[in-house]
Design brief:
Helix content: 40-55%
Number of strands: 3
Distance between the termini: 94 Å
Number of helices: 5
């Protein structure tokens, strides 16, 4: 009876080891891709924060600041200047070279005196798992508030 039992289980260890190796390989792929996506998003976060600060600075500066002074109640953000400031910042930092396919949107909230920048870029993952998105996109946003103090 012992011999028949051993024959039935022949090869089970090999199958278990192969299955375990596949699971470990897929876990490694997930960890590598997650790390890559996290680092890419961190880079986009930094870029969005810097762009928002540049946009807020550009949007709040103009001839009226020098001729009329900076009155906290009357300080206005100019949307076009904010957009130009963001574009200049992204160009100066070489963002499109570091993040090919980068797109961005700038919004200005005149009530809060805030500039918000949303940045999106394609994510090139080092490894892929079947069933994962073919062309994933990652995004980040940054916001800066203009608040003059006396």
């Amino acid at each position: 009876m012992t011999r028949d039992r051993n024959r039935d289980e022949h090869g089970q260890t090999t199958l278990f080891i192969v299955g375990l190796a596949i699971v470990l390989l897929m876990a490694a792929v997930v960890v590598i891709d997650a790390s890559s996506a996290f680092l890419r998003r961190q880079g986009l976060d930094n870029l969005a924060d810097g762009a928002a600060l540049a946009g807020a600075d550009a949007g709040a500066s103009g001839e009226e600041v020098y001729t009329e002074g900076v009155d906290p109640e009357r300080l206005r953000l100019f949307t076009q200047r904010a957009r130009e400031g963001v574009a200049a910042y992204l160009s100066a930092t070489g963002a499109r070279g570091r993040f090919p396919g980068l797109t961005y949107a700038v919004s200005v909230d005149p009530v809060r005196r805030a500039v918000t920048v949303v940045i999106r870029a394609p994510l090139d993952l080092p490894l892929t798992i079947p069933g994962s998105p073919a062309h994933p996109v990652i995004g980040a946003s940054g916001s800066a508030v203009v608040s003059p103090r006396r």
